[in-house]
Design goal:
Elements: H1 2-19, E1 33-45, E2 50-63, E3 66-79, E4 82-97, E5 102-113, E6 118-134, E7 138-153, E8 169-185, E9 188-199, E10 203-214, E11 219-230, E12 240-251
Antiparallel strand pairs: 1-2, 1-12, 2-3, 3-4, 4-5, 5-6, 6-7, 7-8, 8-9, 9-10, 10-11, 11-12
Keywords: Signal
Pfam families: DUF481 (PF04338)
Organism: Photobacterium aquimaris
Length: about 250
């Protein structure tokens, strides 16, 4: 793990020096599009125990009453010289503010996992949300809505005691999200997010905590912890999995 952290710090130093170079042009108005690229170390625990490097990209577009956020993550690891993990996940969420803090939203997510319990795990939902708190340094968003889930089990990789049912899942679901952000310091942002997906086959509750500390205007260090709880698991499995990440984030 020390080797991974050292690599991240070296990357941060290099990027920070590059960001200090003077620019010849300056925009009078901020761009509605912001993007960031991350590279980090990831440790899994629970039903799986492994350490690997991961990369991600995130985009946010804000214009008037509309906001769209998208992100993609990719993980690949080798064990004893052979590929052990290859996973791609992507999500997209669009919101339109209505009035008095209310908004409509549409949400979609997709996971392609070569060695995981599902080859494909996809979800779409839509509903209404409310901006519960909105201050300069603190805000909370809550939304809920119906949707549909499709899961295709990876029968080539999973075992009989895996954390999935042994058949293709196509079912209506109810999704609800609580998203909080707090900026106690100018360079520090704390966030917490709880996402629940409830369906006939299973109910999952994913909780995540993140602390992001700005190193420069473009470079930040992020430490995150995510725990996923499953309402149904085989007797030999644990009801929760957790992921810890340490990443360097570069904002374009």
């Amino acid at each position: 793990m020390a080797r991974y952290i050292l690599t991240l710090l070296l990357l941060a130093t290099t990027a920070a020096n590059a960001s200090e170079e003077p620019t010849t042009e300056a925009s009078n108005e901020p761009s509605p599009l912001t993007s960031s690229i991350g590279l980090g170390y990831q440790a899994l625990s629970g039903n799986s125990n492994s350490q690997t490097m991961n990369g991600n990209i995130a985009l946010t577009y804000t214009k008037g009453r509309y906001q769209t956020t998208a992100d993609a993550k990719y993980i690949m690891a080798k064990k004893n010289g052979e590929e052990d993990k290859r996973k791609l996940s992507a999500s997209l969420k669009a919101k339109r503010m209505i009035r008095d803090g209310y908004y409509w939203y549409g949400n979609g997510s997709y996971i392609d996992d070569r060695y995981g319990p599902y080859y494909v795990d996809s979800l779409v939902s839509t509903g209404i949300g409310y901006r519960l708190f909105s201050y300069e340094t603190f805000q909370t968003l809550v939304d809920i809505g119906p949707g549909f889930r499709h899961q295709n089990p990876n029968l080539d990789e999973i075992k009989s005691d895996s954390i999935v049912k042994q058949e293709v899942v196509n079912e209506p679901i109810l999704q609800s999200t609580v998203d909080m952000q707090w900026k106690p310091l100018k360079t520090l942002t704390l966030s917490a997010k709880v996402n629940m997906v409830s369906g006939k086959s299973n109910t999952t509750i994913e909780s995540s905590l993140n602390a992001t500390n700005d190193i420069t205007d473009n470079i930040a260090l992020n430490i995150g912890y995510t725990q996923t709880y499953y309402s149904w698991v085989p007797e030999t499995m644990k009801n929760s999995d957790s992921t810890t990440t340490i990443s360097i984030i570069y904002t374009l």
